[in-house]
Amino acid sequence: MTTNKKRLAAFDMDGTLLNDKKEITPKTEKVLKELQKQGVELAFITGRVYVSPYYYAKVHGLNLMIAATNGSHVADENGNMIYEAKLDKETVNKVLDLLKNTGFYFHLYPIDGLITSEENQTNPLSEIKGRMPEGYEDKMRRVILPYEELYNIDDDIYKIIIITDDNEARLKFRELLDREGIFNSSSWHNNIEITSSKGTKKYGIESMIEKLGITWDDVWAFGDNENDLPMLQLAGHPFIMGNATDEIKKASKATVVGDNDDEGVANALIKEFNLNC
């Protein structure tokens, strides 16, 4: 049933909207398009760089808003930027200083791809799959530079992601970042994400709320990890995936739905909006 009241449904991608093969299933696509027919505004709100959700939307014929790099770069349905919170150069360089000799894989996110160091290419974590929908891999810019040249790049940087399977070292590095006053979060068990403190999903959705003239009560938000908490704790209709950890489920205070690999988002939307899909 359609309504004149504006509503926003916002979806994290990895571990939430996408299945474990990094796909939007046909059923999920059908549900999203049915929501749009009912007048519900849709948004991807993801830690991914903007070019990735942009092409996912293009492939699936979805016209929606995108909050990329955890909400530090937000664009409307036409690709017009409505909010940004870049990392300042001093913070980027400070993080580069701290990362030296750690052995962690990392890359920097400008708007259209990733930038990393030559030294990172020997790291087994350097080839991360599933950033782009199949057939669009060449649309993401990849820049590989000697470490010292990373200090001199001209690109605006929206996020730095650090990946390591050494959990103890990861947690210690997060403590170091905290002591240095560098805002950080996490979207997976083996990563650290560094953005501006105003580059979170809370601020990303707030920019959409302002554009649409609605409130947090009119937001349906779906997520699965720590970086989703800022939006889940404010949304009027928060949902946490069944595949999230118990710690995140408790912190989110959200309704638990099915797993991402079992179309948990689609099934929850069918029930919430009484869809005939």
Automatic annotation (TrEMBL):
One of its GO terms (cellular component) is cytosol. One of its GO terms (molecular function) is phosphatase activity. Pfam families: Hydrolase_3. It comes from the Bacteria. Signal peptide: none annotated. This is Cof subfamily protein (Haloacid dehalogenase superfamily)/HAD superfamily hydrolase (TIGR01484 family). It comes from Ezakiella coagulans.
